[in-house]
Each structure stands twice: as structure tokens, then as C-alpha cells.
Amino acid sequence: MHFTEIKETADTYxxxxxxxxxxxLEHGENATYFDSEGKAYIDFTAGIGVNALGTNDEGxxxxxxxxxxxxxxxxxxxxxxxxxKAAKAICEKSGFPKVLFCNSGAEANECxxxxxxxxxxxxxxxxxxxxxxxxxxxxGRTMATITATGQDHYHEFFTxxxxxxxxxxxxxxxxxxxxxxxxxxxxxxxVIQGEGGVLETPQEFIEFVRTVCDENDVxxxxxxxxxxxxxxxxxxxxxxxxxxxxxxTTAKGIGGGLPMGAxxxxxxxxxxxxxxxxxxxxxxxxxxxxxxLAVLERLDDAFLAEVSVKGExxxxxxxxxxxxESVRGRGLMIGIDLKTKKAGEIAKKCCENGLLILTAKxxxxxxxxxxxxxxxxxKGLLILERVLSx
Length: 390
Ligand SMILES: Cc1ncc(COP(=O)(O)O)c(C=O)c1O
Prior knowledge:
Blueprint: H1 3-13, E1 25-29, E2 32-35, E3 40-43, H2 46-49, H3 58-68, H4 81-94, E4 98-102, H5 105-124, E5 130-134, H6 143-148, E6 165-168, H7 173-179, E7 184-189, E8 192-193, E9 199-200, H8 203-216, E10 219-223, H9 238-241, E11 247-250, E12 261-265, H10 286-298, H11 301-319, E13 324-330, E14 333-338, H12 343-352, E15 355-356, E16 358-360, E17 363-366, H13 374-389
Parallel strand pairs: 3-15, 5-6, 5-7, 7-10, 10-11
Antiparallel strand pairs: 1-2, 2-3, 4-12, 8-9, 11-12, 13-14, 14-17, 16-17
Helix pairs in contact: 3-10, 4-10, 11-13
The protein binds pyridoxal-5'-phosphate.
Pyridoxal-5'-phosphate is lined by residues 104-106, 109, 138-140, 190, 194-195, 223, 225-226, 251.
């Protein structure tokens, strides 16, 4: 099909929940995509932080195809070697001894919320169910996770939202401490708020939260759906701040492009969710797990160090571009504030000129594949530089 036909078909049948760029992507190699008309694009998006190993990665495809040749799905009623190996790999590499696999970031956060509430219920009984999350956070689109999301515009239309969520300002230690009034079971935060604009949660605040959580036996949840799986130059961003949460959620890059999420926790919490209290039909699907194993095997120390170097390389170059106010982020999670131009307009023009780039609130955002080459980076930056100087 040509683009017009693809667009017309999609627009006829899709619920209009996305403002699409006028492009139909067809195939690609690493961080270079081609559309239905054969035009090339440099990819600074990785499908919003998903294609950790880029597209068409030989090792990843071989692993996924090998699993497809055996069994595509088993349900969680039976054991499977690939799924067991993926669980071992993520637990050993992340530093958390227990995992629950699911299919998305929102589901991983749903699991974290249920786990925190049940842990508290088992230990203290009823009434200690509140979760504190941060203003400007983003935790997903399900009813619980939009409730946890600390942005007012997500809290329209879908009333009633869930009971038991409170919102603290990142950096306001006193406000957060005041909220821990004996009815709170967990604090949930992103080390870097991704959808909120690529904003780092202040280090001292994260350390403070860890301390008050310990003092009050409140669980600390890090939502690493976007920051996890090598994105910040460490396997998980908690390593960059030196503060370990009790529960860590991740998704996006973990399956290398297949739908997958994971909720990890420390040993003491590991047997809280028991048979019948939580579950998922698709979660821990063997094909997704084969993809995850390939991703996790690739992300060794040398690979992760290179993610940091590439990120620095991009940040240094972008700083000098016309209209750039500031550049921030870690590893290959990059936010750019512009002085006068609108990020959305720039993203549109970049797309017209062969660069796929994201926005996050008023910032431009880059989440390229972790395997992006310097040649691809330079090509993409050249397009961005030109667009910004127009
Ligand atoms: C930090 C964070 N949490 C949760 C989510 C939701 O993930 P998903 O869209 O896979 O449900 C996202 C998605 O952007 C995210 O960035």
C-alpha cells in the first residue's frame, strides 16, 4: 500500500487517540528506518524508548525466531525454560531477587501498587493503603496508574478515580514527610521524569525519601519503565543515584520491541503476591522473554559505558545549536529546552527532513536505540541543527 491508502485505512478504523506524524514506517536497520515510499529516517525515538537494540538486530531476531519455532505461548500454568532463564537474568543483573513479568509499563506499576498495598495489609491490616507519587510524574494509562500520575490534565473525564493517592512536589522534603501519616504504604517516583519533560528528580530528595521511607516502614517504588534497561548508561537508573528502591518496575526496552514489563522487588516482599492474588494471561510470554534474554545478554558493562559516552557526545553537540536553551538527561535519555521555537513544530519539521524525534511537554526529547552508531547520530544531528537554524 502507498502512504495515502495506509493513512486512510488507519484513520477510518482507529480510535483517534494519537496525533500521527504523516509517515508509515515500513522497515529499518538499527537506527535508520524507511517509510512506505522508501524515504530514510534517522530514529531518535526507538519507538518511545522500546527498540533498545535498534531494528533488525541479528542476535535478537535469532533468539526470538528460535523461540517461535518451539512454542509461542504456554500460559503461566506451566514452566518454560526461556521464561525461567529470563527471570534469572533480570533478577541477577538488576540486584532484585524476585520478578513478576507482565506486558507493559502500566501493568508493571499496577503490580507494584498491588504489591505495596498487600504487603502493608498483611503486616498492618486495613487503612494503610495510600500511595504518594510526585507531581508532574507519569505512570501509565490504566485507572490506577493515571490516578498515580501527578498531572491534573490526566485526571479529567474518567471519574471516579481511585482512592488512596497523594501527590508531593519533587524536592519538597517537608511536604512529603508530612504525608507519611501512618496511612501510607508506598512512595512512587521516577529517577528522571520522562513524559514530564526529562527532569531529574533531585538527588538529595531521593536520598531523603529513602531515609523517611525506612523510618516509617513505607516502601519505595522506582518507576523505571522509561529509565530502565540501559537507557541512562546503567542497567537501571537507581544505580546512577546510589539509592535502591524496594520495588522497581520496568518495561519499554526490556523485550527489545516485544510487549513486556516487569515488577521486581527485594526478598522480604517476594512472597506477598500469591496464587490467586495477581496474574496475567500473556505476561512472561516465552517469545517476549526470548527477546528480553537477548537484550539483557547484550547490555554488559562495556555496552552500557558506550551508552553514556554516546549520550555525552550528543549533549555536547546539541548545546551549540541555534535556539537551544539547555540540554539535560543521562545516557541516551535526553531533553532539550528551546529558547523561542516550539518543540512540537521542530519535531514535525525534523520528520519532514528525515529525523524522528520526540517531545516531552515543552522539551524536545531523544530516546534513540542504545545501539545507534556515531554515523547515525551525526546524520540525525545534522538534520536537527539545520531545522533549528531555519
Ligand atoms: C515512567 C513511565 N511509567 C509508565 C509508563 C507506561 O508504560 P506503558 O505505556 O508501557 O503502559 C510510561 C510510558 O511512557 C512511562 O514513561
